[in-house]
Write a structure and sequence with these properties.
Length: about 140
């Protein structure tokens, strides 16, 4: 019996927030990272964005709830990557470049995103860019 290859993946902010707060299709990713079937990668900029978005008033999360999510649901399972500075890639929204730079530096095979700017690329170098649904179908 062969060893199951772990998939190194970058998961963008909208997918992380949807998975943790609302479940649904993105929520199925949580069991994959908790079981070790995927290794999620994140840079400091991405982690800062995760925390900033979780703190949006519309989610009505207390500081304790945000800390719980971060320290129990994200940090123990994510590998922190220090991305190399890279060229500008997404002209329409350069803030999305951080996901690609993280994927490149962390040798990810996939970026899981709901962001149209990223999805429009379909891939970058050898990195696939997929919706949560498409990623799960390909698992």
């Amino acid at each position: 019996m062969g060893k199951i290859k772990k998939i190194r993946a970058v998961i963008d902010t909208n997918v992380i927030v949807s998975a943790i707060l609302f479940g649904g299709i993105p929520g199925k990713l949580i069991s994959l990272w908790k079981s070790g079937r995927i290794t999620p990668l994140a840079s400091k900029d991405m982690i800062d964005e995760y925390i900033k978005v979780l703190a949006y008033p519309k989610f009505k999360l207390s500081e304790n709830e945000i800390n719980y999510i971060f320290y129990n649901e994200i940090l123990p399972y994510f590998e922190v990557v220090i991305p190399k500075p890279g060229q500008a890639i997404i002209q329409e929204d350069p803030s999305d470049d951080k996901f690609i730079h993280c994927a490149e530096s962390g040798k990810a095979g996939v970026i899981i995103s709901g962001d149209q700017h990223l999805l429009n690329l379909k891939s970058y170098d050898k990195i696939k860019i997929l919706t949560p649904s498409r990623f799960l179908n390909q698992m």
